[in-house]
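In the laboratory, one determines a bound structure by crystallizing the protein with its ligand and collecting diffraction data. In a computational setting the workflow is compressed into a single prediction: the sequence and the ligand go in, and a structural description comes out. We illustrate the idea with beta-D-glucopyranose.
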Amino acid sequence: MIMKAIIVTPGKAGATLADIPDTPDTGIVKVRTLHTGICGTDREIYAGKLGITRVEKGQTLVLGHEAIGVVESAPSKSGFELGQIVVPMVRRPGGCVNCLKGRQDYCTDGNFTEAGIRGKDGFMREHFYERPEFLIKVGDPSNASICTLTEPTKNIMKILEAINLVAKRSLSDLSNGMAGKNVWIFGTGAEGLLAAAVFKDAGANIMIVNRRPASNAERTIISGIGAGFFNSSTDDWTAALKSTPMEIALDMVGVPEIFEVAIKELSRNGIIVLFGTGGQGKSMQLDGSAIIHMVDKNATVVGCEDGARKHYEEAVEFLERCNAKYGLSNIITGHYTSSNLSVLEKKGGGEIKSVIDW
Ligand code: BGC
Ligand code: ZN
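The predicted complex, in structure-token form:
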């Protein structure tokens, strides 16, 4: 048997829709792919620019790490039944202490693999075979489309966990968690908007900054969430810091200017989370007063990537419960067929999240 798959050659630009062998793997769950999301990581791999890209075997890698599918067959006692909607995990454990405990998101030696990114074929194909421990169940099949956003949302759930851990440094934060906290989010990509919704749901006040006006879809989501929005190219957004101090900053973009401003404007016991990675090639200058400011303010900088199984489960729970409440389905701005490979080239105007339907 054969199936269609989108494959890439690490280090080479472009992708191909190819026929690859569909080799049944007995003993594990067979999943038919429904949708795969496209993110910046996929586009860097497509451009041949993501240095960490590695094949699983042979010369090519099946692309795709954001997926949702439906179980087509499952061994008895696997805990999965025909028709179950599932989301596969991206990262697979290596042998370190954290990996062995299911926290490969905090792998200590780098010997993990990631589907569609490094060392494991991804999900942009008609079927995949998966071990039950790497599949997350979606409750209501009618939520399959919105739960395509589970993988990007799990990153936000880990950020929330990390902030709650750090906030324990200052006792006052321990007592009421995120309630009433001011969270400033830089960037309005899918991750920025999902962060806005997740933190709003956790009780925070949300302020979003971008250096351009919000698109129509972005505006709909931002107002659905009830967040403030500033276009930093035209608005004096720092004036709002007087009434809404920057207690938590989430950099979902990764350019040095954001880090510089966050260090300067962060309030006492503040936390800066670095998630975006879009700043390659751009430099920054930090003078000693920035360090004094950070010391004096008990500031914490948290780098954060990936997430564990529980974060996927929290993501599914959140998306199923909050889709209608915050208008989250507006995040998915386009559906494409697998033969339309040009969507992998670059982010389109007005795009938040493009999805390939299988
Ligand atoms: C995924 C993460 C992954 C990271 C780096 C992101 O797009 O969401 O799970 O760890 O890429 O490979
Ligand atoms: Zn991604």
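The chain has nine helices and 19 strands. Keep in mind that any predicted model is a hypothesis to be tested, not a measurement.
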